[in-house]
Each structure stands twice: as structure tokens, then as C-alpha cells.
Design goal:
This protein is mainly alpha-helical. It has a domain of 29 residues. Helix content is 65%, strand content 0%. The protein contains two helices and no strands. The protein is elongated, with a radius of gyration of 22 Å. 0% of the residues are buried.
Length: 54
């Protein structure tokens, strides 16, 4: 196959049908973002509490 005959990723993605997210996928996204924010807050609190800047 030459370079012109190979399917390009952009062309293949244009051919794909749009599939909406399933409700369980939406819940997983929300849970993972929320967990990340909570853990970031915990890390910040631990950092300021146990390793204060002098």
C-alpha cells in the first residue's frame, strides 16, 4: 500500500457514528473527577500541615 491508499485516522473518525455516553460512563467520569479533587485537597492539607514553609 502506498501512503495515499492507507486510511487516515481523521478520515476513519469522520466515518464513525456518534455514540453518546452511557449513564454508567457518565457516573464513572463524575466519580473520578470528584475523587481526584478530594485527594488533591487532602494532599494540599497534608502538605501545609506537616511540611510548613519556613
Amino acid at each position: 500500500m502506498t501512503d495515499q491508499e492507507k486510511p487516515r485516522l481523521a478520515d476513519e473518525m469522520e466515518k464513525m457514528e456518534h455514540e453518546p455516553l452511557l449513564p454508567v460512563e457518565k457516573k464513572l467520569i463524575v466519580w473520578s473527577i470528584a475523587l481526584g479533587l478530594v485527594l488533591l485537597g487532602v494532599l494540599t492539607w497534608v502538605s501545609y500541615t506537616f511540611f510548613p514553609a519556613s
